[in-house]
Amino acid sequence: MKCIERACSVIVTAAIFTLPFNLNAAESISPAGPIGGTDIRSALLPPPGNYVAAVTGGINVEKWYTTNGDSISADGHVYFAGAGLLHVYDQPFLSGTIASTLYLGAQRTCFGISSVSCASGIQDIYSDVFAWSKFNPSEQFSPNSPVPYGTAYWVGLGLNIPTGNYKKDRSPNIGSNFYTISPNVGVTHTVPSIFPKALGEATELSARLFFNYYTENRDTDYHSGYVVSLDFAGTQRSGPWQYGITGTTYKQLNDDTLNGAQLANGGSRAASFSIGPLLAYDFSIDGKPYNLMAKFLTTTWGENTTGVSGLTLRLATKF
Known about the structure:
Elements: E1 2-4, E2 14-15, E3 21-22, E4 27-29, E5 37-38, E6 49-65, E7 71-93, E8 96-112, E9 117-122, E10 125-137, E11 150-161, E12 180-192, E13 202-214, E14 222-223, E15 227-238, E16 241-252, E17 257-258, E18 261-262, E19 271-285, E20 288-303, E21 305-318
Parallel strand pairs: 1-4
Antiparallel strand pairs: 1-3, 2-5, 6-7, 6-21, 7-8, 8-9, 8-10, 10-11, 11-12, 12-13, 13-15, 14-17, 15-16, 16-19, 17-18, 19-20, 20-21
């Protein structure tokens, strides 16, 4: 069984975890990103300092999508929990802000078509080794307003480090046993509400695009094809509340290889699209800012991957 595992949480900016699987080899590929995925405010960085987020959630595996997009019954679930650290540097760079992140997590995964197998353990580490964000305020922006009217741009370099629990002859696996290198770009655009004011004072559109390159698994001589993945969100901001839709999608661009040879059936390239509601709330305790986020994603289409539904919760704050 080959599985594609999508994990994510960005400290002030991110969040959901989706888990697809592809059934033709003992491999696992991870479209890179923080535990829980990126969604609202995904191109924005907070002021310099240290930030932390706790993320947890659960996913139910409901079906398996075949090569032509048809589906068959499947069974399984995923439970996960993790934490992320974000450091925003004091020094500006090219009129923007730079930062680095580190994400650690653990999960339990069960999956099967005719019978279910399970594995538990530590996930691979994810890091935004380098992230740069530049915010261009619009005419509506005010330094005293909590709403960042304007456009933020993001350029980053992500890295999955194969520290997770992995055994060559086990399926499923928690760790991947290879590195994932993921340059990525993003944008967050916030304008006065395009809907009636009763729905909120601002509309936000956010997206982050990843290109994922995988090194070879030297225990199996298996090399996964490149994957392009996109996380996105369209939301309304109403006082301390933010709500709307979010989603994630990915597409494998080229075939997997085993011992340098292309796999049969075009390498069974995987693709997926998931979407669902999101709700976030900003609040303070003793003057310390917090952000609480919940979202629920459901796979609506896929190829050589699972159909899943899952809830993610994230609580973020500044040290």
